[in-house]
Design goal:
- Strand 2 and strand 3 form a beta hairpin.
- This protein is about 10% helix and about 55% strand.
- By secondary structure, the chain is mainly beta.
- It is globular.
Length: about 70
């Protein structure tokens, strides 16, 4: 499991409402259908929020490419 800390507080909508988010937790998951990565928000209290996004391993390069497109380039 890995954790990414944000330099600013953001927010997420979870099962029980709207919460402050201080980072993301990344965890691998192995199932019969293959390996995935689970991304979960970390609350301002440092605990994992009740919200998960499962990303199939083979889709990670496409996700990275799309995320990189949001970075401002000179």
């Amino acid at each position: 499991m890995k954790t990414i800390k944000f330099n600013k507080t953001t927010h997420f909508t979870g099962r029980n409402g709207y919460f402050k988010c201080s980072g993301l937790e990344l965890e691998t998951l192995n199932r019969g259908i293959g390996q995935s990565v689970i991304i979960s928000p970390v609350t301002s209290k440092g605990v994992c929020g009740r919200c998960d996004i499962e990303i199939p391993r083979e889709s990670i390069p496409a996700l990275i490419k799309e995320l990189e497109s949001f970075i401002e380039k000179p």
